[in-house]
Design brief:
By secondary structure, this protein is an alpha+beta fold. It is built from four helices and four strands; from the N terminus they run H-H-E-E-E-E-H-H. The protein has two domains: 58 residues, no CATH class; 73 residues, Nuclear Transport Factor 2, Chain: A (Roll).
């Protein structure tokens, strides 16, 4: 078999294998790029009164417990806190994918919404299906995409290279 046939065959079959995972990564990547433009994907950030946070962790937990949709009973139900001093808010992300935004000086609830961008991100990197999927799913897709790019460039430039060799 010639190099050209092996290269073309490799390019074709790797492309077929990587097509669906690559489409999933591309579509979710596009959604992540525009997530702040659509409140359906990621809740917009509210504005608090002051830029200096002055509420305690107890106040944050107490206020978050009052939001029924968030399903918070203890700190175990909270995934992370995102403090935004410039906006004067604290974003509480729950395990149930809800986001509660509090004023960082009064603890007033400013905004409550479901956060879909985290699920999209998990699908994007493969961790939606399995915790280490980014190593056995996304990494092989990236390597296959690199292989397709290299073989595609060879397929594209090979005729030009061959023609220039004939002219010499």
């Amino acid at each position: 078999m010639s190099f050209r046939k092996i290269n073309r065959s490799t390019h074709k079959w790797v492309s077929v294998v990587v097509a669906i995972p690559l489409l999933i990564i591309l579509v979710t990547g596009i959604l992540l790029l525009v997530k702040k433009e659509f409140s359906y994907l990621q809740p917009p950030s509210a504005k608090g009164i002051q830029q200096v946070p002055s509420i305690s962790f107890d106040q944050i937990l107490r206020q978050t417990k009052t939001v029924e949709e968030a399903q918070v009973n203890s700190w175990a139900d909270i995934d992370r806190l995102d403090v935004r001093p410039a906006k004067g808010i604290v974003k509480i992300r729950t395990i149930s994918q809800w986001e509660v935004q509090l004023d960082s000086s009064t603890a007033e609830i400013l905004h409550v919404a479901y956060r879909r961008s985290d699920v999209i991100e998990q699908i994007h990197d493969g961790t939606y299906w399995q915790k280490n999927a980014n190593l056995w799913f996304t990494l092989p897709v990236a390597i296959a995409l690199l292989l397709i790019s290299i073989t595609g460039l060879i397929l594209f430039f090979y005729p030009y290279f061959k023609r220039s060799g004939r002219k010499r």
